[in-house]
Design brief:
238 residues, mainly alpha, 2 domains, 3-stranded mixed sheet, 8 helices, 10% strand
Length: 238
């Protein structure tokens, strides 16, 4: 009996080790992929289309990723990476596209295998990431394939860096005059429509949006009026 229990323990430890090793390989593969094809916040879709080996391998890793032993931060990092990689896959698989909106169902009909579930991009974002992690900073990490999104990072999210990266990417977006446009003379903020579409994540009010922006802005914007500029849906291609 003791031998049986010892054998089961060895198998469990070995399984956990293999799972951890597999997870590490996934995050390393994402990082290598992004560093190969992301340049200054833009994606080189043509180069990926000419050599899809890395993308195909990542798609398989996303499909088979085992979340059962993952920490909260590792799960968040996985889903952020998965979303961004699968957006890229959707563009490459359906090229040429001038915009993700050119493809019917880009976000809400086409599905992908994600950690054993069949999901659309909208389901990853709105049924998993937003309700499970409840962190408005994710809106500056998820990149939908359009110029209106914050620039895509060339660094993979991991359990160890995800909180720091979310803070950094949020600060970069808020202080980017092309993303949050501030008119100090009139006391007005012209924000991305991301804040409008997901206003519930920012206090569900204009005051909440301004407060969130002000908490990351290098300038004092308290009391500024809020408006939104039109989203740029053109493809974020290099």
């Amino acid at each position: 009996m003791k031998n049986l229990l010892f054998g089961l323990l060895i198998m469990l430890v070995a399984g956990l080790h293999l799972n951890a090793q597999s997870h590490s390989e996934f995050f390393e593969s994402v990082d290598k992929f992004l560093k190969s094809y992301v340049v200054e916040g833009k994606v080189d879709y043509d180069a990926i289309a000419n050599n899809t080996e890395q993308l195909t391998a990542l798609s398989k890793q996303i499909a088979n990723f085992d979340l059962s032993e993952s920490s909260f931060n590792e799960q968040l990092a996985f889903y952020l990476n998965a979303y961004n990689v699968l957006v890229i896959q959707n563009v490459v698989d359906n090229s040429p596209l001038a915009s993700p909106l050119d493809l019917k169902g880009f976000f809400d009909e086409l599905t992908f295998e994600v950690a054993g579930e069949r999901l659309t991009l909208n389901q990853i974002e709105n049924e998993i990431i937003r309700p499970r992690f409840k962190d408005p900073r994710i809106h500056f990490a998820l990149v939908c394939g359009a110029n209106g999104c914050p620039p895509i990072t060339d660094t993979a999210f991991t359990a160890n860096n995800v909180d720091e990266m979310l803070a950094s990417l949020t600060s970069m977006a808020i202080n980017d005059p092309g993303f949050v446009k501030v008119d100090h003379s009139s006391g007005a903020i012209y924000a991305s429509e991301i804040f409008k579409w997901y206003i519930v994540d920012f206090g569900n009010s204009a005051e909440g949006v301004v407060g969130f922006i002000n908490s990351y802005s290098k300038d004092e914007l308290g009391g500024y009026a809020l408006d939104y500029y039109s989203y740029d849906w053109q493809l974020n291609t290099k």
